[in-house]
Amino acid sequence: GKGSKEMKINGKVLGYSVLIITWILAVLFFSRSCMEQKRLDQELVVRVEQAKKDAAEAEERRKEEEQREALLEEQKKERIVLVKTLPVFESEDISVNQTAEPKTKLLNGEKVLLMEEGSPYSLVQIKEKNISGYVWSDCIGRMPESGVLPSRVVVIDAGGQQDADLEKEPVRPESDVMTERMREGAVGRFTGGKEYEITLAVALELEQELEKYGVLVVQTRRKMEVSISNAERGSLASQIEADAFLQMYINRSENLERRGAY
After folding, report:
1. Dist CA 87 CA 117 (whole Å)
2. How far apart are CA 155 and CA 220, in angstroms?
3. pLDDT in tens, 167-206
4. Backbone CA torsion sign across 166, 167, 170, 173
5. Residues sharing a CB contact under 8 Å with residue 100, sequence separation 6 or more, in sequence order
6. Distant-in-sequence contacts of 189-194, Cβ < 8 A, 24+ apart
7. Whose CA is closest to 142, among 120, 163, 117?
8. What is the model's pLDDT at position 202?
9. Distance CA 200, CA 212 (A)
10. Quick one: which of 203, 206, 205, 208 has its CA closest to 220?
11. Predicted TM-score (pTM) of this structure
12. Most exposed among 11, 64, 242, 254, judged by the fewest C-beta atoms under 10 Å?
């Protein structure tokens, strides 16, 4: 009896001890697991915050790069007004602009952005005035390397054009005398040379010579296929307040001895 009773007691004590030790070990295990999980959670929070910070910095760098590219693109488009005064029109129709009121006028040295290059008119944007419109292409350009804008402006009118425009217009403002808007021009009696081809070739050569003296040359046309009347060509020179307006025309002769300008 007594020994058996003690054994039972010892067995219970041992069982309880095992339970207590198991419970303690379980608590320690779960505590350690919780601490490990907390550490992992904290590390995850740190990584997430760092990822957010990296993403924000990357986005900021992307925006800065876009701004730099936009600035470079704008600088590529930047042009300077090279003539004394430059009207900006709503339309690129030369006939309309001959008598239309311009949207605004720009002065020598003012800046524009070239949005669409054309001939004879280009589309530009004037940032300071928040408007856009059409200007004569030859009247804008890049700032010369010297930083000095041309002091003289000469408009050269290469007479004639490939396709004649036989509609009538006044020979001069407010005149009742009418004439064709623009003819093809003369054709050489012996050479077959066409006036509109020769005048354009001479006009472009003369431009190169005048530019050597710092003169800005504005051409009324730079190609054969145009439709610009006499009045419209003269109107251009007046609108930009050119210093000189040089018209080039050629007559044919039946006499082979006749040569040169007269």
Report:
1. 17
2. 7
3. 887 777 777 888 877 877 878 877 888 988 999 999 999 9
4. negative
5. 89, 90, 91
6. 189/252, 189/253, 189/254, 190/256, 194/160
7. 117
8. 94
9. 19
10. 203
11. 0.70
12. 254
